Amino acid sequence: MIQLVHKDGVASVVLTCDVCGEPITDAGMAIVRWKRSKDLDNIVTDLEFCHKGACDKQIEEYLRYPCWELRHFLARLVVSTGTPPENIVEVIREASAIGLMSKTDEEASTE
Ligand SMILES: [Zn+2]
What we know:
Layout: E1 2-7, E2 10-15, E3 30-33, E4 48-51, E5 67-69, H1 70-80, H2 85-97, H3 103-109
Antiparallel strand pairs: 1-2, 3-4, 3-5
Helix pairs in contact: 2-3
The structure holds zinc ion (ZN).
The site of zinc ion has 7 residues, from strand 4.
């Protein structure tokens, strides 16, 4: 689930695990999955985000769910919005400059 969390007058975007409810803080350790459709041409709107490991195994039929690693999903999202990668770096710098990201986020963006 994607949430806007307001704290101390600042809104942050937080992606939480749909299984345990905890924030997802490592896109390489999370997935997005959806129920398979028999119709090859379809639009999926019921996406589920969860941590890899214990959380993605809590749903009995998890093996039948198609999924992508979260970082690959995010890359596809960026591409589909027509945002070149160099613009993402610029947006992260702007968000940092106006205090929309914590120092940890800022440090992570330069790695
Ligand atoms: Zn979880």
